[in-house]
Amino acid sequence: MVEKRKLICISCPVGCELTVTLDGDNILEVEDNACKLGLDYAQQEIFDPKRMVATSVKVKNGFHPLVPVYTEHPIPKPMIKDVLAEVRKVEIEAPVDFNQIVIENVLDTGVNIIASRNMPKV
Ligand code: SF4
Fold first, then answer.
1. CA 113 to CA 12: how far, in whole Å?
2. Is-above-0.85 flag for pTM?
3. 31, 36, 41: which to mutate for ligand 1, most atoms within 8 A of CB?
């Protein structure tokens, strides 16, 4: 069955609103993309959507009780809930360094969870 979907390409700040025509697992046409990166974006977003995730992790003996963290690369969208649950289990010891790996290869995604700021010890 042929269907049309609207997507906003987030590959650059222009944010083209794409119209994608699909027939099952086949993309028949991508329209309104100002460059060919929009084609790759539509393919990725429809068949394997990924997102960067930012959250925070508990810190023991830190200046603040939490430190902000993020995924080093985008992770599959269906895994976001499980990754957040995994991060909630963790408590790290201060001091924490900017870009320190907090969880390596979280849930076998191949992606590390990284601290996005320093957190000194009290
Ligand atoms: S299609 Fe090209 S110009 Fe448009 S938002 Fe995507 S990357 Fe930017």
1. 24
2. no
3. 41
